[in-house]
Amino acid sequence: MLPPGTLLGPGDDAAVLAAADARVVVTTDVLVEGVHFRLDWSTPYQVGRKAMAANLADVAAMGAVPTALVVGLAVPGRTPVSTVDALASGMWEETGRVGAGIIGGDVVSSAEIVISVTALGDLRGRAPVTRGGARAGDVLAVCGRLGWSAAGLAMLRQGLRSPPAVVGAHQVPQPPYAAGPQAAAAGATAMIDISDGLLADAGHLAEASGVAIDIDSAAVPVAAELVEVATALGVDARRWVLTGGEDHGLLACFPAATALPAGWTQLGLVCEGRGVTVDGRPYRGRAGWAHFGSRGDR
Amino acid sequence: MLPPGTLLGPGDDAAVLAAADARVVVTTDVLVEGVHFRLDWSTPYQVGRKAMAANLADVAAMGAVPTALVVGLAVPGRTPVSTVDALASGMWEETGRVGAGIIGGDVVSSAEIVISVTALGDLRGRAPVTRGGARAGDVLAVCGRLGWSAAGLAMLRQGLRSPPAVVGAHQVPQPPYAAGPQAAAAGATAMIDISDGLLADAGHLAEASGVAIDIDSAAVPVAAELVEVATALGVDARRWVLTGGEDHGLLACFPAATALPAGWTQLGLVCEGRGVTVDGRPYRGRAGWAHFGSRGDR
Fold it and tell me: What is B139-278's CATH number?
């Protein structure tokens, strides 16, 4: 079903979308088979959902409500129609969850599956919440899952498919879309989609804002399910939580006096300076996922 | 340089673009190396220009002015940085020609080069000119080149690089961007970007409008340069003109009483019925380029 603001849907040279407050938020992400997903680890339906989720979360991270998306799909000619249908079905499922829809697309042939998604959003009259507005004295808070996708990936790499809740978190992230506009309405000073990992994206936020961020490790939620899986693998779940990407939670800063909206957890503080510390010290280890050629606008 | 309506440029989770009349036109196209372009036939700079041109022409075909674009670029890890720079340079050159700019992107690794472009546009308060508004009695008119890209492709397929004007027309199309809004202002009832070929796209327009179109072959301009090349190859230039795609000219219908804007040439008439004829008869031969999986919204 096409979203309510669709003034002209697919089938013409271009679509036309309402932009109620005379602005439109726009973001684009590309997912490549073998790099961003594997069809032996995820179904095409799951890949379709994940491709949309990554973009919808970027819109939410501006404090905006996703309105519509366009999709470019490059697939090998030998790809079964059922695979393309399942990809599309997953895409529609995920966009339907936020009341958005797909208003345009292009399907072409290629050597491997490449999915490019552009998502548009509505700021509902508010200023965009950028990465650059955090100020010393703000509190840092998170909404959404941390470390689940990394844990699921670790299980898949071991050839395991369970526990389904953990593996499923890698296959289809569950970004807290509504929390983005909610945080904006509550006065968030800065916000970012956690796609590269908590520490890495806190670093992006700190750098853009010209501040330092200190994370209180005791405040970072580590889900019991992840501890269980980590114990079985003989690793530390905390590493997934601090450095694992692709859960697409939202990380935001709020003025200290703000009553955090429901679902948000305070993780730390914004201070004068530069960089990210955990309990006042630099974190030892790789902070997160820095994708080849990433331009920081994912 | 970022376009004037850029409220927030690249570098954040998403960009923010002004949409002055509370609507935004959006279209997306994907180009794949080996399918849509060959780097032994075109330079990366030319490919960058062509990728943007295809999308900018789609925006123009709605009667809109392109405002901004986002680009997804998937490139093999072995690709020289100079190639990516040249692609980007071509993209910026072409967008600059219409006063638009690139406000977001994503660069990822892949097995082959895949360029996905999403273009946004401003209708300037006018209704979009769709493919579906042509009425019996309208005149059919074209603006822009016909057959040049096909002629250039024919030369490249022969291993030839000249004449440069013809080969160059395949490498970098020259869509008449300003003619789109101009036609809309003049009262065009329907319009389409000629990406698949004159007859094929006239067919799309006729089908969407529920009308028939008859093209007067004597009225279809055949450039002297194309006749010269066709003669050398021993083929008929008229075939390129009627069926060759990728020049991204604009094909539009106007009420019969309309004084056609400068640069537009009347080609035929809209009638009751279905389908496209040339001089009252069905055209013998393949009407144009129907790409694998094309969804008609290119």
Answer: 3.90.650.10
Contacts with B51 from chain A: Cβ below 8 Å: none
Quick check: do A20-122 and A139-278 share a fold?
no
pLDDT tens digit sequence for B175-192: 999 999 999 999 999 999
Closest Cα of chain B to A157: distance in Å? 21
ipTM: 0.93
SS3 label, residue B181: helix
Give the pLDDT of residue B296.
34
CB A255 within 8 A of CB A152: no
Task: Indicate the CATH number for domain A20-122.
Answer: 3.30.1330.10
Domain boundaries, chain A: 20-122, 139-278
Q: Do A108 and B8 count as a contact with CB atoms less than 8 A apart?
A: no
Coil, helix or strand at residue B233: helix
Give residue-wise pLDDT tens across range B194-252: 999 999 999 999 999 999 999 999 999 999 999 999 999 999 999 999 999 999 999 99
- Give the best residue of B25, B75, B106 to mutate against chain A (max A CB count within 10 A): B106
As a whole number of angstroms, the distance between CA A136 and CA A268 comes to 12
**Six-digit token pair at A217?**
């490790």
Site of tokens 């340069």: B225
User: A6, A7, A12: best mutation site toward chain B, by most B Cβ within 10 Å?
Assistant: A12
Single-letter code of the amino acid located at B129: V
Which CATH number applies to B6-122?
3.30.1330.10
Q: Could you please report the per-residue DSSP string of chain A?
A: ---TTEEE-BTBSSEEEE-TTSEEEEEEEEEEBTTTB-TTTS-HHHHHHHHHHHHHHHHHTTT-EEEEEEEEEEE-TTS-HHHHHHHHHHHHHHHHTTT-EEEEEEEEE-SS-EEEEEEEEE-TTSPP--SS---TTPEEEEES-SSHHHHHHHHHHTT---SHHHHHHHHS----TTHHHHHHHTT-SEEEEESS-HHHHHHHHHHHHT-EEEE-GGGS---HHHHHHHHHHTS-HHHHHHH---S-EEEEEE-TT--PPTT-EEEEEEESSSEEEETTBPPPS--S---TT--S--
Which residues, 6 or more positions from B196, have their beta carbon under 8 angstroms from its beta carbon?
B204, B245, B288, B289, B290, B291, B294, B298
Residues of chain A with confidence (pLDDT) below 70? 286-298
Residue with tokens 């309208």, as numbered in its chain: B138
Place of tokens 């680009």: B71
* Cα–Cα distance for residue pair B135/B272, rounded to 1 Å: 8
Whole-number Å distance between alpha carbons of A33 and A54: 15
Provide the whole-model pTM.
0.94
What's B86-116 look like in SS3?
Answer: HHHHHHHHHHHHCCCEEEEEEEEECCCCEEE
SS3 B18: strand
Are B24 and A17 in contact (CB < 8 Å)?
yes
